[in-house]
Design a protein that fits this description.
alpha/beta; globular; seven-stranded mixed β-sheet
């Protein structure tokens, strides 16, 4: 349950804070990074902090407290995964998802949606990698994140050259001396 996870988080935060291994800068929590960058978006700061601190054991984690803030972080940090609550002020998680899917540079960014309300319509859920109902087991979320990160491959930017940018000569032909 979430309350159990919150107790674990407070113990984790106290033990780590004393040793100086939790770095907090611009909403970032970083302990040991596997190279993956995760953005956690939730207007409930305690839940956002909890998820960020637990995932920071393996990933670089940034936080935002609404969809508008999240878009700014996405532009600067290019996350490997976005975990977003659905119901938030200023811009909902569904609006954030629509914005991410509408831009070529973020179209393939995996998104996990969180909500205490009923799941959104199936066509919306299909746009996200997963929907997780609150309250949830933090271990299950960790496993889901790990599976998505492992499954995701970075999308390489496509290079488009104009047709006349490449010139072939007879020296390029196979079998020519």
């Amino acid at each position: 349950m979430l309350s159990k996870a919150l107790e674990v988080s407070s113990k984790f935060a106290m033990s780590e804070a004393g040793s100086g291994t939790v770095e907090r800068k611009l909403g970032c929590v970083k302990l040991m990074s596997t190279g993956a960058v995760i953005l956690v978006v939730d207007d409930e700061e305690s839940l956002c902090d909890l998820i960020a601190e637990i995932l920071a054991e393996h990933y670089e984690v940034f936080k935002a407290f609404n969809g508008k803030e999240a878009l700014e972080v996405v532009k600067k940090r290019h996350p490997s995964l976005v975990i977003s609550d659905i119901m938030m002020p200023y811009m909902t998680g569904l609006e954030l998802l629509k914005e991410l899917r509408g831009k070529p540079e973020t179209r393939h960014t995996p998104v996990i949606l969180l909500s205490a309300a009923a799941p959104p319509p199936q066509e919306v859920v299909r746009e996200a990698q997963a929907f997780v109902s609150k309250p949830f087991e933090i271990d299950a979320l960790e496993a889901l994140v790990a599976a998505i990160i492992k499954q995701s491959k970075p999308v390489q930017p496509q290079i488009t050259l104009p047709f006349n940018a490449i010139t072939a000569t007879t020296l390029d032909a196979p079998g020519q001396p």
